[in-house]
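Sequence in, structure out. Go.
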Amino acid sequence: MRKPLLFTFLLAASFTQAQMTSSNEPTIGESSTLFVVDSFATNYSGTTGAGVTWDYSSIAGYNGLTQDVECLDPSADPNGTNFPGATKVLSVGDIKQFFTSSLSDRTSQGFYYTEATFGDIIVTYENDPSILCTYPFAQGGATVNDAYDGSLSMTFNSIPINEALTGTITASIDGEGTLLLPNSVSLSNVIRYYSEENASTTLPLVGAVDVIKTQYEYYDYANSNLPVFVHLTISILPSGGGIPITETSLVLSQEDGIFVGVEELNAFDFTVAPNPASDAITVFGEFEASATAQLLDASGRVINTFAVTNGQTIDVTNLNSGMYLLTINNAGQTTTKTVVKK
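Output:
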């Protein structure tokens, strides 16, 4: 593990703020249930610093769809043997971050997640783990920049692969302030943990790719050691940019949003046919040129994002059988419909 670069700034003596410490790190067995909310939600990447407000009060929801956030024992996880040094797992739905900790820092051994097409995508830092934070970790304090070295394992085009992977992480408490949630809930003295992991590897028939994991976790330490709001995206895309080969997004909230179904909002309508489908679906509707769509699995994770037009065909051949959600944002209105893959 390479020593992280720490950039420390002076804090005003009179300013009191929440911070990440070894004492409020989640312990094995702690859990909470959060609601899956609008996958199009902004991540407020530019809203940083002290005394800020993150306003998710009008965010849309998916009619009570939930995901668990838990701190688990790695030995009980089916993929735990891939992370032999880990002592804890922070589980956000199907996305699992394996780590160890001490009085001075928290260190990642890697993560894995379940993708609708490829199954489990396992990223391990077996050669050089990655520092996630240094204790105490507070807004205006240290920023961590660290390098990691390991491998990526997955099944691609029906071929099991295991490729070398190297990357860097940037992490900080990038904001402190008020988090506004639906149902008129206002949480003060919230801190936001931000991290971006940017790695390089290769895939057969594709070549060099980037694996980018961006995560925002909001903490209200007066009430819980687990995040009360999470905005997380994992993308695998051609090196240097382009259309993602796969992209998984998950936005979770302590409070449920307004259901975005057409019956509840009387928003614009669209049609999906055939439904159920075996190979492809076609979307019909009066869409603006800027309309975008997202296909989510039954757990609320985004598995595909694309521009959408009237009569557009979407290939679902490689998806597992089951229920999916098709969400379309058109001229500022969002509508969701259920799609069934046979």
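Check: Residues 1-16, 262-266 have pLDDT under 50 and may be disordered. The CA atoms of residues 123 and 152 lie 5 Å apart.
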